Write the structure tokens for this entry.
Amino acid sequence: MPRATNKVAAHRRKKKFLKLAKGYWGRRKNVWTIAKNHIEKGLLHAYVGRKLKKRQYRSLWIVRINAAARENGTTYSRLMHALKIKNITINRKVLAELAMNKPEVFTYIVKQALS
């Protein structure tokens, strides 16, 4: 009895991987073994990058909030502590947005928190 290799599925799998390798340079784009390794490595970096992006945005928001808080005579840590004590629940993303685009609203929030 002949050996079955399920060529259709194997071909589709290779085709899918080589489609992901489109735009790669040299043999990375058309040699199966090399393309497979670089695709897997790239997907791994993409996974890590999605996690790092969240971390970097949070640190950017904190920097913006701190800069605006210092213009209002306080620091980031004191402001966040005061907001927590007064039960003002605004996340860092919104606070940073207010600090950049609507400084008068941010100043009002700071005064409410520190009063």
